[in-house]
Amino acid sequence: MPDLPLWKWLLAAFCAFNVGMAKTGMPGLGIMVIPLFVIAVGDARLSAGWLLPVLITADLFAVFYYRRHAAAGRLFSLLPWVAGGMAAGAYILRYDDRFLRPLVGVIILSMLIVYLLRKRAVDPLPTDGVFYSAAYGSMAGFATMVANAAGPVMNVYLLSRRLSREEFVATGAWFFFVVNLTKIPVYYGHGLFSQASLAFDLALAPATMAGALAGRKLLAVIPQKVFEVSVIVLAFLATIALFISGR
Fold this sequence. Notes:
The protein is mainly α and 247 residues long.
């Protein structure tokens, strides 16, 4: 078990709780965990590997809860581009985290700006086609591989698909569950897992489960408009946190 001070354990548990909530109720919360988890682990590069089992645990809950609502067909056009982005991200992982995090932040901000422009346009910007799929898919694949930070990219994409809250969460859950499983061998090859990290993640499992239960209840009562606005606002705030944590 890692020898960490109590405040870091409490911070990590807070992060795990928010990961659970993000997966089953408030997707925008997930990206905010990333800089906080870096602080808890104390190493920006290792934090990606230490966080991955927490994410997969929460993915399992979300997939089970919303298994009947997934609109998986909306993601097929993204898959080749996601794979390409993940391959590029696997290569970039060798670089220093101070370079990676601002780069991911730029990607997220770009996608959020595109979404907001679409919402304000008199003639809506196109949401279908090869270019659209390539942009979102490759950026999501790259961001998830280098920093577990594809949440805002996929949130913007799924919002543009005009899904219900349940379809939004369920479709995102299946996407990230599959993607996170494929990241395991890559992270293992980069030495991001250890006995200490796995023991750490196991100790955080109860907090992750509690967050997943709380997120499900929150989704049932939050209005659709509040849901969409919250996703955008939290994603912007979290992107700023990515820039700050990369300094």
